[in-house]
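Bench notes, afternoon.
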Amino acid sequence: MATNASPNPKDGMWAFIAYYLRFCRTQRGLSGEATGRLINASKATVSRIENDVDRLDGQRAALLDKAWETGGVFALLVWYASIGHDPQWLAQYKSFEQRARIIRIFEPLVISGLLQTEEYARGLLTGGGMVDPEPFVVERMERQGVLDRAFVMVLLSEATLRWPVGSPRIMREQLTHVLEVAERPNVVLHVIPQTFETNAYPGLDGGLKLVTGDDFGEVAYTESIGGGRLISSPTEVAEYAILFARISAKALPEHRSKDLITAAMEAFGDDNVAQEHSQRNPGRK
């Protein structure tokens, strides 16, 4: 096993679980390999959990509780950690994203970060009150490298196409970029139309991402105002996979989705660009 120092258990519940797992393992004189056999995981996975790189899920926690007769302590710790807010969840999600084989994304309000142009991202961050958005714009653009490695399925609500960010030019270029990305063979993109036929549907209250990788299985990340939540429990992840399927059932086929994106792009056309120009240069005709 790695000899790295244990995470500080005061950093959060997940850090405490990592710390406590190593404590219990060493107290019993078990190797990482032996502990891995108890939870159907590799020695490397046990090491990552103990270093707070990966997280113990409910199923593996239950196996530990049974093998070590803890009275359900690990399952309870994982439950409490899962329902609370953790400022490290987004960083953890990004780590999974970069190791992903498959990424599924639903966005109800804004264009997904993996599809954003620099100017659109900058407009979003600035509009959100960020004083210096540049480091975050750079980081967001770097994350888009995953489009070269993973299969990506994106569901966008029609509202994401029409909500103005920045200027008509920025929106037109952003939607053009979305269409270009949708042409990649490893990208599937659908739009959920904003109609009474579609009506209200699950997911309108927040975005959802499902990420699958060879070395970590599948995790879900849900977004809301002020934060998000990372879910690694297989049972809970399965529920979010069902939710994603229900949302995707509301979406248009690919060709009709592209037609809707094109229509939204044309709505930010020459007249709007001319209006933007006149607002910037009021003395010119």
